[in-house]
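Predict structure. Chain length: 337.
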Amino acid sequence: MVNIREEIERKEERSLSPYAALSVKSKGRMQEEPEDLLRPVFQRDRDRIIHSKAFRRLKDKTQVFLTPEGDHYRTRLTHTLEVAQIARTVSRSLDLNEDLTEAIALAHDLGHTPFGHAGERAINRVCPLGFQHAEQSVRVVQLLERDGRGLNLTYEVLDGIRNHGMRMKPETLEGQVVRLSDKIAYMHHDLDDAVRAGILPDDRVPEHIARVAGNTLGERLDTFITDMIRESYGTGEVRLSEPVFSALMDLRQWMFENVYTNKIAKSQEGKAEKLIETLYAFFTENPEEMPEEYIYLIEEKGEKKERIVSDYISSMTDRYAIGLYEDMYIPYPWKLK
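Prediction complete.
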């Protein structure tokens, strides 16, 4: 049988940019594994992420609007898919490794809490070990998936996940593509959702941003993606031109002022944070009430209780966290059996 993986690896060497991360030159996994006959290492990582429980749970985790009633608001899963779509478009145009790009994009938010950044703030506030969703995403794939065995992903994927924040810089260009694509995606779709929710009257932005990036959501999305490709092609780095990057940062600031801190949009966040804090306090006092795989990590792996409680709560979907809280603290109406 022809070794399909080796054929794909040779094709990468022939066709990809000299700046691309080649599968055969990966720095490898923490635990060595036999090579697959069909898939190079980054493709295997992508497949493992898609089949993980953490990836499936993203469909019921908040993006911006907490547990919204309506079929068309973004969730953490749809955000992830939009990031992956933008990142693959850019990577293909730059002749980078699309499998690596997609693996990083699909996994970058696996560590997000229920209720979005409100949940993240709450856990970070009550857990003495701190909490940050990018590091938690790495923890999910390294340890928590597969009942404490992790997904054993490659170094390059882990680096891209860990460093997707605005102040970070991944080692690979594929990771840098995801880092910028994440910002472009959420500012595009969060503005769209804000208009749908009535938080903003339309998709217009301040004139100085519109002059550079465009007057509509579609125009701005096209501007940011096209500029990233044009400015990065053949340079060995991923970047935006100065005026477009400034427009992106100005749009981000405007979004914080008008959407992310909007009193209507964030009216339920205090309740969500209190719910998370209450669950954290309960499971810290009663760790035996957590599922067995989490108890195992404390008793057999020597993990700190506070970290495992954070792991458990951050893994929850919005709906599961609310249901668990109701079961624990809201009395059922009595009825004759």
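Summary: Residues 26-202+290-329 form a domain with the Hypothetical protein af1432 fold (CATH 1.10.3210.10).
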